[in-house]
Design a protein that fits this description.
121 residues, alpha+beta, PH-domain like, 8-stranded mixed beta sheet, 2 helices, 8 strands, globular
Length: 121
């Protein structure tokens, strides 16, 4: 599953307000990133991929990935010519990673730190 487009950070409190119905009791958002129409949320329990579909975006797929199913991940920092950072996440039983591209406004080290905190449990 590849997600295309560049993500930029959004305030976790705003994301909790916008997507609160997706969260379990006591679940907290630690990082939130917005694509053009889609979003990715990193909570204390899972990663949630939000994929708005169709011309109007009224149909939405919510893909929940528990951290325990992430076998490994990789981050690639932005460079001088390639200004975007990238995240690749491998899910157990899947040889193709989920790929995510972040704009230079996203601290990829923060994304990596959130994942490390919860994947390593």
């Amino acid at each position: 599953m590849a997600l295309f487009g560049n993500a930029h950070p959004i305030d976790p409190a705003k994301a909790a307000q916008d997507y609160g119905r997706l969260l379990g009791q006591g679940e907290q958002i630690y990082g939130a990133y917005q694509l053009i129409r889609d979003a990715i949320l990193l909570t204390d329990r899972r990663m949630i991929l939000i994929d708005k579909q169709g011309m109007t975006g009224k149909k939405v797929e919510y893909h929940s990935v528990p951290y325990r199913s992430i076998s490994h991940f990789a981050v690639e920092t932005a460079g001088h010519f390639d200004l975007d950072a990238e995240l690749k996440i491998w899910i157990s039983g899947n040889s193709v990673p989920i790929e995510k591209t972040f704009t230079k406004g996203v601290d990829i080290y923060e994304v990596q730190a959130i994942l490390t905190q919860f994947v390593a449990r």
